[in-house]
Design goal:
- The complex is a heterodimer.
- Chain A folds into two domains: 1-93 and 175-331, 3-Layer(aba) Sandwich (Rossmann fold); 105-174, no CATH class.
- Helix content of chain A is 31%, strand content 22%.
- Chain A has helices at residues 49-57, 111-121, 127-140, 146-149, 159-172, 189-206, 217-223, 241-246, 251-258, 321-330, and strands at residues 7-17, 22-33, 38-42, 64-73, 82-84, 94-97, 177-181, 209-213, 226-231, 234-240, 308-309, 315-316.
- In chain A, a hairpin with an 8-residue loop joins strand 4 (64-73) and strand 5.
- Chain B is mainly α.
- Helices cover 78% and strands 0% of the residues of chain B.
- The longest helix of chain B is centred in the middle third of the chain and has 36 residues, at 91-126.
- The model of chain B has no long low-confidence stretch (mean pLDDT 86).
- Classes of the chains: A alpha/beta, B mainly alpha.
- Chains A and B meet through strand 6, helix 2 and helix 5 of A and helix 9 and helix 10 of B.
Chain lengths: 331, 315
């Protein structure tokens, strides 16, 4: 890893705006991604994984706003990350691959034309040059017959092929950091492995930073270097893949990982995390996992913040951080 | 053109034939269903019963319905629309004289409604919370509730009688006069069609605006006018075009009223005169022409949608 991170998210806060009030749904999310590094973000639905990516891109849906925090992006190779405005970096440093490749490609545009236009938007490329680059990009993401597929419409391609096209589109902007919002969730396991391999190749060849959001822990294990666990709009644990996935410290992270059925573990009922995450309206200053936690005590009712994911090392937001670790592993 | 779209075009063209047959059948049956006896009208009020029978025989009205239908179709195929009961002038001549005005009017109405509806739709979809969008939305509610004949009279009294800028009625002789005389009628028709068009285009635009593929385009750095032109309009236009085609009947009906209001010598005005004087051959011919126009407009709209949306296939 280089000395500078490529992307730094610092104290990101996002709120849903209602008439007069603002409901905070992302509360002080901080992390950093370096060149060729992949940060995995896991957590159950509604915890703010995708919202984090959207906020970083400046592509929040109407009615949802960034209310605090800074985004810093290294725009030149080797340069220190500098603060950027929301919406300034979409397609200019940051690019995104979405979950549903069927809905996420414009049905009225030939895929090659779309890629070539995206290449041209970077400037300084002639029409024929952009076309050639688009064919090369299609070939590089493993689309067979790229010259023929150039003229295909999205609905004429299979799901796996569409996701390859979506990746080629994102790469056409020559991004520094690629944000992946569950890009393999809609695919079967074989395709999933192919797409993961493809993303990994792009990452190492181009020195891309990558953020990979998924609720599939097996996928995260394959692609990520560092894993952040999100719960109720905060990062509650972060560390290397083996640290977090094999030796989780936060009771929620432990429960989430235990919920994954194992092929060689004992046969029994599926384990799930009892209860459901709190409504953002009930987010307080106390630990947000309090009501579902088997290890709660009075210390949990004090101020418990999310952790700053920019610092290195294995850390958890749980007030019992070190002390509970042994007890957790025994369960 | 892909195989699917070609298939669509062929299939859609083939579909025209049964509709045409149904239209012809209705036009012929119309004569049977109309109140009053055309033979009696033609023969005049003082004709004897024998004379009426004679006229009916000459017109072929005593023949079985299918024979009448066959004769009608074969006449049509030879370009013969029949002759007017009233004046004895061939209907093709009447239509030839008057169709120009109606076509002018329809294109004018289409132009005005599109020019008014598109900016309104874009404003309401892209800046839904702005002042302009709110004003637009209320104005549309008011306009949609104004009947065309009243709008026409109001426009005439304010913009023509009040200022003398524009002619109150009639159809000029040279090109400049004609354009001037078309302004108020086009505005009247355009205003009648525009609210629904603007509403549906706005709804369709705002739906496309939240579509995932638009988010993708924005994530690639597409914004502003290129985003609207390249990704929004192409996806939002098909529903609006389809609605416009469905509105074609309303547009033609509007033409009938507007021609009457502004004293334009078009097909719509002729239709009203002919109907009030029981000039059946003319009514029949005009019904056929209006029907053909609606079929044609819908066909064009469907083909345009197929052109815009590559996913179109024939089911």
């Amino acid at each position: 890893m280089t000395s500078h991170p490529l992307l730094e998210v610092d104290g990101l806060r996002v709120a849903i705006r209602r008439q007069d009030t603002a409901l905070t749904v992302l509360d002080g999310v901080s992390f950093a991604v370096g060149a060729s590094q992949c940060l995995g973000i896991v957590g159950e639905s509604g915890c703010g994984k995708s919202l984090t990516l959207r906020a970083a891109m400046g592509l929040l849906p109407p009615g949802i706003e960034r209310t605090g925090g800074k985004i810093r992006l290294s725009l030149q190779p080797g340069a220190a990350p500098s603060e950027v405005q929301a919406g300034q970096v979409a397609g200019r440093g940051l690019a995104m691959v979405f979950q549903d490749s069927h809905a996420s490609l414009d049905p009225t545009m030939r895929v090659g034309t779309f890629i070539a236009e995206t290449v041209r938007r970077r400037g300084g490329t002639s029409r024929s040059d952009a076309r050639r680059q688009a064919v090369e990009l299609l070939a590089s993401v493993g689309v067979p017959d790229p010259k023929v597929r150039f003229n295909a419409y999205p609905h004429e391609l299979s799901g796996g092929m569409r996701q390859r096209v979506a990746i080629a589109l994102a790469l056409a902007t020559d991004p520094r950091v690629l944000l992946c919002d569950e890009p393999t969730t809609a695919l079967d396991v074989t395709l999933q492995a192919q797409i993961l391999r493809l993303l990994n190749t792009a990452r190492t060849e181009r020195g891309l930073g990558m953020i990979f959001v998924s609720h599939d822990i097996a996928v995260i294990r394959q692609i990520a270097d560092v894993v952040a666990v999100m719960y109720a709009g905060q990062i509650i644990e972060i560390g290397t893949v083996s640290d977090v996935l094999d030796r989780p410290r936060h009771p929620y992270a432990r429960a989430l990982i235990d919920a994954v059925p194992s092929i060689d573990g004992p046969v029994g009922p599926f384990r799930s995390v009892p209860g459901s995450p709190p409504d953002p309206i009930d987010y307080g200053s106390a630990c947000r996992f309090l009501d579902r936690c088997g290890h709660r005590d009075t210390a949990c009712e004090g101020v418990v913040n999310g952790i700053d994911g920019r610092e290195a090392g294995h850390r958890s937001a749980c007030v019992h951080n070190g002390t509970l670790a042994h007890g957790l592993e025994a369960t | 053109m892909s195989a699917g779209r070609l298939h669509f075009v062929v299939g859609r063209l083939a579909q025209v034939f049964p509709v045409l047959a149904a239209l012809l059948l209705i036009v012929v049956l119309l004569q049977q269903m109309m109140p009053g006896d055309p033979a009696r009208v033609i023969a005049g009020p003082r004709a004897t019963a024998e004379q009426v029978v004679q006229v009916r025989h000459e017109l072929g009205l005593d023949r079985p319905i299918f024979e009448q239908f066959g004769r009608h179709v074969s006449n049509l195929l030879q370009g013969d629309l029949g002759t007017s009961n009233r004046t004895g002038i061939p209907i093709t001549t009447i239509v030839g004289d008057r169709i120009g005005v109606t076509v002018w009017l329809l294109f004018g109405g289409l132009l005005v409604s599109t020019l008014l509806a598109m900016p309104a739709a874009l404003l309401m979809a892209l800046r839904p919370r702005s002042r302009g969008a709110r004003i637009c939305s209320r104005a549309l509610t008011i306009i949609i509730n104004c009947p065309p004949f009243w709008v026409g009279l109001m426009l005439a009294s304010v913009l023509a009688l009040g200022t003398g800028w524009l002619p109150v009625g009639g159809f000029g002789v040279d090109f400049g006069d004609r354009v001037r005389s078309m302004i108020l009628p086009s505005l009247t028709i355009g205003l009648a069609v525009m609210p629904l068009l603007a509403r549906s285009a706005a709804a369709s635009l705002s739906q496309v605006l939240t579509a995932d593929h638009v988010t993708t385009a924005r994530s690639l750095g597409v914004s502003g006018w290129p985003l609207v032109r390249r990704h929004l309009l192409r996806n939002a236009l098909p529903p609006a075009i389809t609605l416009l085609a469905i509105q074609a009947a309303a547009l033609l009906f509007g033409a009938v009223i507007v021609e009457q209001t502004f004293g334009l010598p078009g097909l719509g005005a002729e239709m009203i005169t002919a109907a009030s004087q029981r000039d059946f051959p003319v009514v029949q011919a005009l019904t056929l022409i209006f029907g053909l126009a609606i079929i044609g407009i819908n066909l064009l709209a469907d083909l345009a949608v197929a052109l815009l949306d590559p996913r179109t296939t024939w089911r």
